[in-house]
Design brief:
The protein is α/β, with parallel strands linked by helices. It has helices at 11-22, 55-62, 78-83, 85-89, 92-104, 121-124, 146-155, and strands at residues 2-6, 26-31, 46-49, 67-70, 109-112. The protein is globular, with a radius of gyration of 16 Å.
Length: 156
């Protein structure tokens, strides 16, 4: 199968790409970071540095794929999301354009990686909770920035 991994230059995206390659799949790895800054580079994949906030870029890498795994976002840990709320929210362009490209090219399956930041932050203030579930996202009160972007993208 042909997989596109968006956000492949990140820690999780790099490991996921390797796993797909090792399983014998054809993998296209995409990230906005220059390739020399990726956590992992794979010689058996196509590696592309590209800004996925741009619709035409999403279309160019999505065409001819079977599956899209979208882990791309403007993120860098809790410190980053607290100091860069507007930058985090711009990731909604990546998700919107990836969905539009997937629809245009009839992608079979699409995986979107969300975040616990999408859940109601009042619930997360408790030290001991049994775990979060889908119902806990509403009433909506996610992290202000990254969390709102993830919740909106889930709804799309």
């Amino acid at each position: 199968m042909k997989y596109l991994v968006a956000g492949a230059g990140g820690f999780i995206g790099g490991h996921l790409s390797k796993r797909l390659i090792d399983a014998g799949h054809e993998v296209t790895c995409v990230d906005i970071k220059p390739i020399d800054l990726w956590f992992q580079k794979h010689s058996k994949s196509e590696n592309i540095s590209l800004d996925l906030k741009i619709l035409e870029n999403c279309e160019s890498v999505t065409k001819n794929q079977d599956f899209v795994i979208n882990m791309a976002c403007n993120m860098g840990g809790i410190g980053f999301i607290e100091w860069n709320k507007a930058k985090c929210m711009i990731s909604v362009l990546i998700n919107t354009h990836m969905l539009m490209a997937c629809k245009k090219f009839n992608i079979k399956k699409y995986f979107f990686s969300s975040s616990a930041c999408a859940y109601n932050t009042n619930i997360q203030k408790n030290t001991f909770i049994e775990g979060l579930k889908e119902d806990d996202a509403y009433p909506a009160f996610p992290e202000d920035g990254y969390g709102w972007e993830k919740l909106f993208s889930e709804r799309m």
